Amino acid sequence: MEDLTERRLVVVTGASSGIGLAAAVAFACRGDQVVLVGRDPARLQAAAERVRETAGERPELFRADFAVLDDVRGLAQRLRDAYDRIDVLANNAGAIALQPLTTVDGFEMSIQANHLAPFLLTNLLADRVARTVVTASGAHRFGALDPDDLNRPLRDYRPMGAYGTSKQANILFAAEAARRWPGISAYSFHPGVVRTRFANDSRLVAFGMRFMPFRSPEKGAETLVWLANQDPARLVDGGYYYNRRPRRPYRKAADPQLAARLWAASATAVGIDG
Protein backbone atom coordinates (compact mmCIF):
# COMPACT_ATOMS: atom_id res chain seq x y z
CA MET A 1 0.00 0.00 0.00
CA GLU A 2 1.03 3.58 -0.53
CA ASP A 3 2.11 5.62 2.46
CA LEU A 4 -0.12 8.69 2.36
CA THR A 5 0.77 9.97 5.82
CA GLU A 6 4.23 11.44 5.39
CA ARG A 7 4.95 14.65 3.48
CA ARG A 8 8.13 14.17 1.51
CA LEU A 9 10.51 16.28 -0.53
CA VAL A 10 10.46 15.03 -4.12
CA VAL A 11 12.81 16.33 -6.84
CA VAL A 12 11.72 15.64 -10.41
CA THR A 13 14.09 16.30 -13.31
CA GLY A 14 12.68 16.81 -16.78
CA ALA A 15 9.59 18.17 -15.06
CA SER A 16 8.57 20.84 -17.58
CA SER A 17 6.24 18.52 -19.50
CA GLY A 18 5.37 14.92 -20.22
CA ILE A 19 6.06 12.17 -17.70
CA GLY A 20 7.96 14.48 -15.36
CA LEU A 21 5.14 17.01 -15.12
CA ALA A 22 2.50 14.28 -14.74
CA ALA A 23 4.53 12.73 -11.91
CA ALA A 24 5.07 16.11 -10.24
CA VAL A 25 1.31 16.75 -10.26
CA ALA A 26 0.68 13.32 -8.73
CA PHE A 27 3.25 13.90 -5.99
CA ALA A 28 1.88 17.36 -5.22
CA CYS A 29 -1.67 16.00 -5.04
CA ARG A 30 -0.40 13.42 -2.56
CA GLY A 31 0.76 16.30 -0.39
CA ASP A 32 4.49 16.11 -1.11
CA GLN A 33 6.74 19.16 -1.40
CA VAL A 34 7.73 19.07 -5.05
CA VAL A 35 10.81 20.52 -6.73
CA LEU A 36 10.76 20.86 -10.52
CA VAL A 37 14.00 20.77 -12.53
CA GLY A 38 14.00 21.73 -16.20
CA ARG A 39 16.00 23.37 -18.96
CA ASP A 40 13.61 26.01 -20.29
CA PRO A 41 12.57 28.76 -17.82
CA ALA A 42 9.27 29.57 -19.56
CA ARG A 43 8.19 25.94 -19.67
CA LEU A 44 9.25 25.50 -16.05
CA GLN A 45 7.05 28.41 -15.03
CA ALA A 46 4.13 26.96 -16.98
CA ALA A 47 4.67 23.58 -15.32
CA ALA A 48 4.72 25.21 -11.90
CA GLU A 49 1.42 26.90 -12.64
CA ARG A 50 -0.07 23.57 -13.72
CA VAL A 51 1.01 21.98 -10.44
CA ARG A 52 -0.33 24.92 -8.44
CA GLU A 53 -3.68 24.86 -10.21
CA THR A 54 -4.05 21.14 -9.64
CA ALA A 55 -2.63 20.68 -6.15
CA GLY A 56 -2.97 24.15 -4.63
CA GLU A 57 0.71 24.69 -3.86
CA ARG A 58 3.39 26.19 -6.09
CA PRO A 59 6.51 24.02 -6.40
CA GLU A 60 10.09 25.19 -6.19
CA LEU A 61 11.90 25.60 -9.52
CA PHE A 62 15.51 24.90 -10.45
CA ARG A 63 16.87 25.42 -13.95
CA ALA A 64 19.62 23.20 -15.35
CA ASP A 65 20.67 21.98 -18.78
CA PHE A 66 21.84 18.37 -18.58
CA ALA A 67 23.85 18.88 -21.77
CA VAL A 68 26.21 20.98 -19.61
CA LEU A 69 27.82 19.15 -16.69
CA ASP A 70 28.69 22.42 -14.95
CA ASP A 71 24.94 23.10 -14.88
CA VAL A 72 24.45 19.75 -13.13
CA ARG A 73 27.16 20.55 -10.59
CA GLY A 74 25.56 23.91 -9.92
CA LEU A 75 22.14 22.30 -9.58
CA ALA A 76 23.46 19.81 -7.06
CA GLN A 77 24.99 22.58 -4.98
CA ARG A 78 21.80 24.64 -5.03
CA LEU A 79 19.76 21.63 -3.99
CA ARG A 80 22.22 20.90 -1.19
CA ASP A 81 22.02 24.49 -0.01
CA ALA A 82 18.22 24.37 -0.02
CA TYR A 83 17.43 20.93 1.40
CA ASP A 84 18.96 18.69 4.06
CA ARG A 85 17.11 15.63 2.79
CA ILE A 86 15.64 14.53 -0.54
CA ASP A 87 13.17 11.72 -0.02
CA VAL A 88 12.75 10.94 -3.72
CA LEU A 89 14.98 11.92 -6.64
CA ALA A 90 13.15 11.16 -9.89
CA ASN A 91 15.85 11.04 -12.55
CA ASN A 92 13.50 11.57 -15.46
CA ALA A 93 15.18 14.13 -17.75
CA GLY A 94 16.15 12.79 -21.14
CA ALA A 95 16.95 13.54 -24.76
CA ILE A 96 17.23 11.89 -28.15
CA ALA A 97 19.18 13.43 -31.01
CA LEU A 98 18.37 12.92 -34.69
CA GLN A 99 21.97 13.57 -35.68
CA PRO A 100 25.31 13.09 -33.95
CA LEU A 101 25.78 15.88 -31.41
CA THR A 102 28.65 16.43 -29.03
CA THR A 103 28.08 18.39 -25.83
CA VAL A 104 30.36 21.13 -24.53
CA ASP A 105 31.80 18.45 -22.24
CA GLY A 106 32.79 16.30 -25.22
CA PHE A 107 30.21 13.52 -24.94
CA GLU A 108 27.53 12.22 -27.27
CA MET A 109 24.32 14.04 -26.38
CA SER A 110 22.15 11.06 -25.40
CA ILE A 111 24.70 9.39 -23.14
CA GLN A 112 25.36 12.68 -21.34
CA ALA A 113 21.81 14.00 -20.97
CA ASN A 114 20.27 10.62 -20.15
CA HIS A 115 23.03 8.94 -18.14
CA LEU A 116 26.11 10.95 -17.22
CA ALA A 117 24.15 13.97 -15.98
CA PRO A 118 21.81 12.01 -13.67
CA PHE A 119 24.73 9.82 -12.61
CA LEU A 120 26.64 12.94 -11.57
CA LEU A 121 23.64 14.56 -9.91
CA THR A 122 22.81 11.47 -7.87
CA ASN A 123 26.41 11.01 -6.78
CA LEU A 124 26.64 14.64 -5.66
CA LEU A 125 23.42 14.26 -3.66
CA ALA A 126 23.89 10.67 -2.48
CA ASP A 127 24.28 11.56 1.18
CA ARG A 128 20.88 13.27 1.13
CA VAL A 129 18.79 11.02 -1.12
CA ALA A 130 16.63 8.22 0.29
CA ARG A 131 15.27 6.85 -2.99
CA THR A 132 15.92 7.34 -6.68
CA VAL A 133 13.73 6.30 -9.60
CA VAL A 134 15.28 6.39 -13.07
CA THR A 135 13.20 6.68 -16.24
CA ALA A 136 14.64 4.04 -18.54
CA SER A 137 13.02 2.48 -21.61
CA GLY A 138 12.38 -0.75 -23.44
CA ALA A 139 14.56 0.87 -26.10
CA HIS A 140 17.53 -0.48 -24.13
CA ARG A 141 17.19 -3.46 -26.48
CA PHE A 142 18.91 -1.28 -29.12
CA GLY A 143 21.81 -0.43 -26.81
CA ALA A 144 25.43 -1.31 -27.52
CA LEU A 145 27.17 0.13 -24.48
CA ASP A 146 30.97 0.16 -24.39
CA PRO A 147 32.25 1.60 -21.09
CA ASP A 148 35.68 1.98 -22.65
CA ASP A 149 34.25 4.29 -25.30
CA LEU A 150 31.14 6.17 -24.19
CA ASN A 151 31.21 8.12 -27.47
CA ARG A 152 31.04 5.00 -29.62
CA PRO A 153 27.53 5.89 -30.94
CA LEU A 154 29.03 8.96 -32.65
CA ARG A 155 30.59 6.61 -35.19
CA ASP A 156 28.02 5.37 -37.71
CA TYR A 157 25.38 7.32 -35.78
CA ARG A 158 21.85 5.96 -35.41
CA PRO A 159 19.45 7.89 -33.18
CA MET A 160 17.76 4.85 -31.68
CA GLY A 161 21.08 3.13 -31.15
CA ALA A 162 22.44 6.10 -29.22
CA TYR A 163 19.22 6.50 -27.27
CA GLY A 164 19.00 2.78 -26.54
CA THR A 165 22.58 2.77 -25.29
CA SER A 166 21.77 5.56 -22.85
CA LYS A 167 18.68 3.68 -21.64
CA GLN A 168 20.77 0.53 -21.21
CA ALA A 169 23.04 2.67 -19.05
CA ASN A 170 20.05 3.86 -16.98
CA ILE A 171 19.10 0.31 -16.02
CA LEU A 172 22.69 -0.66 -15.22
CA PHE A 173 23.11 2.52 -13.16
CA ALA A 174 20.07 1.83 -10.99
CA ALA A 175 21.17 -1.74 -10.37
CA GLU A 176 24.72 -0.73 -9.49
CA ALA A 177 23.50 2.15 -7.30
CA ALA A 178 21.49 -0.37 -5.28
CA ARG A 179 24.59 -2.51 -4.81
CA ARG A 180 26.88 0.39 -3.88
CA TRP A 181 24.49 2.45 -1.77
CA PRO A 182 22.63 0.26 0.73
CA GLY A 183 21.10 3.39 2.25
CA ILE A 184 19.44 4.43 -1.04
CA SER A 185 16.63 2.53 -2.72
CA ALA A 186 17.13 2.59 -6.49
CA TYR A 187 14.86 1.49 -9.33
CA SER A 188 14.47 1.96 -13.08
CA PHE A 189 11.34 1.59 -15.19
CA HIS A 190 9.96 1.57 -18.72
CA PRO A 191 7.09 4.08 -19.08
CA GLY A 192 5.77 2.69 -22.36
CA VAL A 193 5.57 4.75 -25.53
CA VAL A 194 4.33 8.11 -24.30
CA ARG A 195 3.09 11.04 -26.35
CA THR A 196 5.09 13.92 -24.88
CA ARG A 197 7.10 16.99 -25.89
CA PHE A 198 10.19 14.85 -25.37
CA ALA A 199 13.08 17.30 -25.80
CA ASN A 200 11.35 18.73 -28.84
CA ASP A 201 13.47 21.54 -30.25
CA SER A 202 15.71 22.23 -33.23
CA ARG A 203 18.21 19.57 -32.18
CA LEU A 204 16.12 17.01 -30.35
CA VAL A 205 12.95 15.28 -31.46
CA ALA A 206 10.01 13.54 -29.88
CA PHE A 207 10.58 9.84 -29.30
CA GLY A 208 8.12 7.19 -30.43
CA MET A 209 7.06 5.36 -33.52
CA ARG A 210 4.39 7.20 -35.49
CA PHE A 211 2.09 4.21 -35.83
CA MET A 212 2.46 2.73 -32.37
CA PRO A 213 -0.21 3.21 -29.72
CA PHE A 214 0.79 6.04 -27.41
CA ARG A 215 0.14 6.38 -23.71
CA SER A 216 -0.76 9.61 -22.00
CA PRO A 217 1.96 11.19 -19.84
CA GLU A 218 -0.17 10.35 -16.80
CA LYS A 219 -0.22 6.67 -17.74
CA GLY A 220 3.51 6.75 -18.46
CA ALA A 221 4.20 8.28 -15.05
CA GLU A 222 2.19 5.71 -13.12
CA THR A 223 5.08 3.32 -12.49
CA LEU A 224 7.40 6.16 -11.51
CA VAL A 225 4.92 7.41 -8.91
CA TRP A 226 4.20 3.88 -7.74
CA LEU A 227 7.90 3.10 -7.26
CA ALA A 228 8.31 6.33 -5.30
CA ASN A 229 5.37 5.51 -3.03
CA GLN A 230 5.79 1.81 -2.30
CA ASP A 231 7.37 0.37 0.83
CA PRO A 232 10.90 -0.63 -0.30
CA ALA A 233 10.40 -4.00 1.37
CA ARG A 234 7.82 -4.77 -1.31
CA LEU A 235 10.16 -3.89 -4.19
CA VAL A 236 13.28 -5.37 -5.78
CA ASP A 237 16.10 -2.96 -4.99
CA GLY A 238 17.90 -2.10 -8.21
CA GLY A 239 15.08 -3.67 -10.18
CA TYR A 240 13.64 -2.74 -13.57
CA TYR A 241 9.86 -2.30 -13.73
CA TYR A 242 7.11 -1.99 -16.31
CA ASN A 243 3.43 -1.50 -15.56
CA ARG A 244 4.18 -1.64 -11.82
CA ARG A 245 5.69 -5.11 -12.10
CA PRO A 246 9.33 -6.22 -12.05
CA ARG A 247 10.60 -7.20 -15.48
CA ARG A 248 13.79 -8.84 -16.62
CA PRO A 249 15.68 -6.45 -18.90
CA TYR A 250 17.65 -7.68 -21.87
CA ARG A 251 20.86 -9.43 -20.85
CA LYS A 252 22.92 -6.43 -21.97
CA ALA A 253 21.24 -4.40 -19.19
CA ALA A 254 21.46 -7.11 -16.53
CA ASP A 255 25.21 -7.77 -16.36
CA PRO A 256 26.71 -6.81 -12.95
CA GLN A 257 30.23 -6.72 -14.36
CA LEU A 258 29.17 -4.37 -17.14
CA ALA A 259 27.36 -2.22 -14.58
CA ALA A 260 30.50 -1.95 -12.45
CA ARG A 261 32.59 -1.05 -15.50
CA LEU A 262 30.04 1.57 -16.53
CA TRP A 263 30.10 3.09 -13.04
CA ALA A 264 33.89 3.41 -13.09
CA ALA A 265 33.90 4.87 -16.61
CA SER A 266 31.11 7.30 -15.73
CA ALA A 267 32.89 8.48 -12.60
CA THR A 268 36.02 9.17 -14.63
CA ALA A 269 33.99 10.94 -17.31
CA VAL A 270 32.33 13.36 -14.88
CA GLY A 271 35.40 13.80 -12.67
CA ILE A 272 34.34 12.18 -9.38
CA ASP A 273 35.75 9.35 -7.32
CA GLY A 274 34.36 6.03 -8.44
Structure description:
Helix 4 (109-125) packs across helix 7 and helix 5 packs across helix 7 (256-270). The protein is α/β, with parallel strands linked by helices. Strands 3-2-1-4-5-6-7-8 form an 8-stranded mixed β-sheet, sandwiched between helices. It is built from 7 helices and 8 strands, in the order βαβαβαβαβαβαββα. The model is unreliable at 198-212 (pLDDT under 50).
Fill in the keyword field for this structure:
alpha/beta; 8-stranded mixed β-sheet; 40% helix; 13% strand; globular
Secondary structure blueprint with pairings:
Blueprint: E1 9-13, H1 18-30, E2 33-38, H2 41-55, E3 60-63, H3 69-82, E4 88-91, H4 109-125, E5 131-135, H5 159-180, E6 185-190, H6 217-229, E7 240-242, E8 245-247, H7 256-270
Parallel strand pairs: 1-2, 1-4, 2-3, 4-5, 5-6, 6-7
Antiparallel strand pairs: 7-8
Helix pairs in contact: 1-2, 1-6, 3-4, 4-5, 4-7, 5-7
Main beta sheet, described?
A: 8 strands, mixed
| Strand numbers in spatial order across the main sheet | 3-2-1-4-5-6-7-8
The helical percent reads 25-40%
Q: Give a count of the beta strands, DSSP E runs of length 2 or more.
A: 8
Overall mean pLDDT stands at 92
Q: What is the structure about, briefly put?
A:
By secondary structure, the chain is α/β, with parallel strands linked by helices.
